[in-house]
Design goal:
This protein has 2 domains: 9-110, Jelly Rolls, CATH 2.60.120; 139-227, Orthogonal Bundle (Arc Repressor Mutant, subunit A), CATH 1.10.10.10. The chain is 36% helix and 25% strand. The protein has 6 helices and 12 strands. The protein has helices at residues 9-12, 101-108, 112-156, 172-178, 183-195, 211-217, and strands at 20-24, 29-31, 39-45, 48-53, 59-65, 70-71, 87-90, 94-100, 157-160, 163-166, 199-202, 205-208. Residues 139-212 form the HTH crp-type domain.
């Protein structure tokens, strides 16, 4: 049985037999903005980032997707009439199952419950993106960085005696992309957090020592965890 994150087992069975398997290298794009939508993808191995280019040319990372995650942008639209609004790029060697969207829509047409399940998954991703845009607009680059750190603890956090280890390697440039800012700006924002021992680094990974401080600064609304993740 193929496991698909956030989908019921009854829905996941429709993904048991992919049309084909795709292997892409680190740094290779799965699709780019304005490419015509054609397929739906399920990550079997590796990670893919979903990016959006801002009007001033900066890269805004919306999600990091990993094994078991679907890449289902605009699933319900006819592929001949819709184009991708985001980029998808592998951050490491990645293996994906590929499903033609039109064929999958026809298969699901007779199973309303499974179709609703996928639509709810798509809506969940839209809600996640909206909350990230909200944090960036309301709280600026600093708030966007703090909310990204909070989301990372929810997605990759491992409790330690002195805090929460984010068990995922990220460069400061990659952190900057979550905030649509520069690496230098992120360096400046992280520096006081390290001096105050709010965060630290351990073997190249971030450790959050005072999560409540980050939440307080951005007036965290304690959204459901399912909305406050990076994937």
């Amino acid at each position: 049985m193929v496991k698909v994150n956030h989908l019921k087992a009854a829905t996941a069975r429709y993904f048991a037999t992919p049309d084909h398997t795709l292997h892409i290298k680190k740094g290779q794009f799965l699709f780019r903005q304005q490419d015509i939508v054609s397929d739906l993808y399920l990550i079997r191995q590796g990670h893919v980032i979903i990016n959006k280019m801002t009007p001033d040319g900066r890269e805004l990372t919306l999600r990091i997707l990993g094994p078991g995650d679907l890449i289902e942008e605009v699933f319900m639209q006819e592929e001949a009439t819709h184009r991708y609004l985001v980029d998808a790029k592998a951050t490491e060697a990645t293996v994906l199952f590929v499903y033609p969207q039109g064929q999958l829509r026809q298969t699901l047409a007779s199973d309303a419950e499974a179709l609703v399940d996928i639509l709810q998954y798509s809506q969940l991703n839209n809600q996640k993106d909206q909350t990230k845009f909200r944090d960036l607009i309301l709280h600026g680059k600093k708030g966007a960085l703090y909310s990204t750190l909070i989301r990372l603890t929810n997605s990759y956090g491992i409790k330690q005696a002195d805090g929460i280890l984010i068990d995922h390697l990220l460069t400061n440039q990659e952190l900057a992309n979550f905030c649509a800012t520069s690496r230098e700006s992120v360096n400046r924002l992280l520096s006081p957090l390290k001096k105050q021992q709010i965060i630290s680094e351990r073997d190249g990974k971030l450790v959050i020592h005072d999560l409540d401080y980050l939440k307080k600064v951005i007036n965290c609304e304690n959204c459901p965890i399912v909305l406050c993740t990076i994937n």
